[in-house]
Structures are given as structure tokens and as C-alpha cells.
Amino acid sequence: MRTFLAPPIALAGLVVGCLAGCGNAASLGGPDAGAAGPDLTATPTSQRLVSSDYALTGGQEVYLCKRFTLTSDLLVRAITPSSDVGTHHQVLGVDPNKSAPDGLGPCGSNLEFDVASWQLLFASGVGSPTLSMPEGVALILHAGDQLVLQMHLLNASPGQVTGTASLDIATYPPGTPVTAAEMLLAGPVPDSHLVADVPTGPGHVVKGLCTMTAPTRLFAVFPHMHQIGRHIQVTTTVAGASSTLYDADYQFTEQVFKEFTPIDLAKGDSVHVTCTYDNETGKPVQFGQSSLQEMCFAISYVSPPLPGSTFGDFCFF
């Protein structure tokens, strides 16, 4: 079943940083805190979309969002995340409602959006590499779109840490004919009321799936769990036949994208994710937003978008 979720939700455990004017203890503000985003001219070369230094006190965990409005169209063919110690996740999206002004501000522990109206573009994890689209495929952005980067910053050490986070993009020249891409999050909703806690001990398994509502082509997957995740498998079911896309032990500090020759998916075909956890914490671990909780997602990239969404959708069970 493919559906939109009503409650807000966050993807904890990915790669990012504080974007603009963060000082000690991840302080807000700075000279560009209320400024509009950069005037990005689409070129076939790489360019910096956004970047910032950050600082966190010992044990500090904070969520920040940087909003900026584009002043030119962009055809994004690749996204490269970069971050240092202390950055925990990065999620980029478009807020069509422009529900807050441009600038940097707190997000709470959620993506602070109604996912039925937001358009998700990109998510990355600790150590994630570049995501490249197939030839002729792009994330299509327009002048006037308000982009939002949600950042989860976490310092697990007792002392202060500093670092830098950024997103670079490569674009097609303006006017290039392209097919739009979309990000789908296949897996169970990370909400403790909907997914049972991970019990103590090894080998606990959680599963989820995403069923296509129209034909599309799958070209990349980003397997995502948190700190007690030990193994993750992503498969497709095409015309009743199962094929494995990804099957490996999970490393929280090296969260990789898997790119492949695009796979044709028909209506009714599906993407499946199976997550295995070893819980040695001595107590049950809930599913949820924090890096101390858990998730199980095959963050998938398809083109063209499925009906009913422009860029991103949550797709589960």
C-alpha cells in the first residue's frame, strides 16, 4: 500500500550540519539567518548549494532547519553531502506552503511538516557518498521554491565538537529535456504506536514494503537504520519474481547509496526492506525520531514520480 502519512516524522541517523551562522552550542542566528538562499545558476558543473560550520557542547542534541528560496530554476543531476563529526542526518525538501520565513530556526525533533504537502528531495547518512541520477533524469526545481534542510546534530562525547556540513549539486543546463525523479521512503513508520519495540537480544527482524501504483523506474536505494541495526536487505518483486538489490551488514558510520541500471517497475510491483537488529542495550528500543531509537527504511529513488506526488512520498506496508 502506498499512502501519505498525516503525522509529522523525522529521519534520524543521517548526515548533516547546521546551515548558516551557528556558533557555540549550536546557537541560532548569524549574518545570513534571515537572508534568502543563493541565486543558483544552472550549469553542468558542481556548485555549493548550502554550507555551514557548527559547534555542539558535550552531550548536546539539536534539530535545526535552514529555509531558503531559489531565485532560478535548477535541474539537479547529482547531490553530494559532506559533514564532520557531530552531524547526524540531513533531509532536503520543498515546502510548497512556505510555512515559515527563510532563515535558520529550530525544528524540534520532527521534519516540522505535514508530509501530505511537503515534497522530499534527498536524505543522506553518516559517510554517504554522491547520489547521481541516470542520464536525462533530474530533480526539477523552480525559481520561487522554498527549500528546507532539516538537520539533526548530535554530540555523543562529553567535550565540545565543531564541524562543517554542506550540500553540493551538479545540474543540467537550463532547458535540457529531463524526466523528473522522486524519493520514496519504503518501510514501516517510525512511530512507537505502529511498530513494536526492538526487544533485548540478537536477531530481531522488522519488515516493510512499498507497492507501485503506476509504472516507474527504480535507479538507487539508500538503506537506513540506526545504531543497533546489524543487517539490512532490500529486494524487488517484479511480475511475481524476487530480486535482491542490497544485502549487507549495516554500518551506522558508513551509510551508502546503491546505484544500479534502472529497473522497470509496473503497477503492483514492489520494493521490500528487511531489517535485523541486535539489541545489547539491556532494554527495549522504540522506533522513533532520535538516534537512540530505530528506523527501517529503503529510501528509494524512482523516475518518473508516482501519481499524486511531485518529489517525495512515504510508502509503507
CATH topology of the largest domain: Jelly Rolls
Number of domains: 2
Sheet-strand content, in percent, reads over 45%
The protein's oligomeric status is single chain
Tell me the number of strands.
20
Secondary-structure-based class equals mainly beta
- Overall residue-averaged pLDDT value: 79
What does the radius of gyration come to?
A: 19 Å
Ends distance = 6 Å
The number of helical segments is 0
CATH class of the largest domain: Mainly Beta
Summarize the structure.
The protein is built from no helices and 20 strands.
Record keyword descriptors for this entry.
mainly beta, 317 residues, Jelly Rolls, disordered N terminus, 0% helix, five-stranded antiparallel sheet, 2 domains, 47% strand
General description of the model:
The chain is mainly beta and 317 residues long. It has two domains: 24-180, Jelly Rolls (Sandwich), CATH 2.60.120; 182-315, Jelly Rolls (Sandwich). It has strands spanning 46-56, 61-69, 74-82, 87-94, 103-106, 119-124, 131-132, 137-141, 146-154, 161-171, 179-180, 182-186, 201-211, 216-224, 229-238, 241-249, 258-265, 270-279, 297-303, 312-315. The strands form four sheets. Strands 1, 3, 7, 8, 10 and 11 form a six-stranded mixed sheet that branches. A five-stranded antiparallel sheet has the order 5-2-9-4-6, with no helix packed on it. A five-stranded mixed sheet has the order 17-14-19-12-20, with no helix packed on it. A hairpin with a 2-residue loop joins strand 15 and strand 16. The chain is globular, with a radius of gyration of 19 Å.
